[in-house]
Amino acid sequence: MTTPPTNRARRIAQRAWAAMAAAALVLGAGAGMTLLAPRALADDADRQSSLSGDGGTGATGGGTADAADTADGDQSGGQSAEQPASADEPTLTIDEATAVVTASSGWRIRVTVANGTDRTMPSGTLTALVNAAHVFASRTDIQDWSQGEVPIPTPDVLGAVDVPELKPGASATVTVDASADVLASIAVWGPKPVLLDYAAGDPSAQSAQDAQNGTGAGSDAAAGAHVQVHTFLTRSSDGMASGQTPAMDMTVALPIASDGWDADADAISSLVEDGDTDAEDAAGVVVDDADAQQERRLQQLSVAHPALQIVADPATLKAAGMPAQVTALMQPSGFDITAYAAYGDADAYAAAGVDDADWSAQTALDDYRDAIGDQNASGSVVAWQGDAAWSLDSLTTAKRQGYDVVVADHEFDDSDDSTVHTGTVVVPTDAGDVTVLTQQRELSRLAQGQATSDASDGETSVAGRLARFVAQSAFYQMEQPYTSRNLLVCFGQNADMTMVDTLMAALEQAPWLHLTDLSTLEQAEPLASGDNALSMVADSAQLDDTESAEVASTLSALQGSRDDITRITRDVVDAGDGKVSGRAASWSDALLAAQSACARTALGGDADVAQRMTQGAAAIASWLTDGIVITPTESVSVVSETAQMPVTVSNTLPYPVHVQVRSSTGSMEIVTSRSADVDVPAHGDAQVTFKIRVSASGSARATLTLHDRDGRQFGSSRTTDITSVLRISDMSGFVIIGLAVLLGLLGLWRQFHREKDPDE
Question: Is 216 exposed, middle or buried (0-12, 13-18, 19+ CB in 10 A)?
Answer without folding.
Answer: exposed
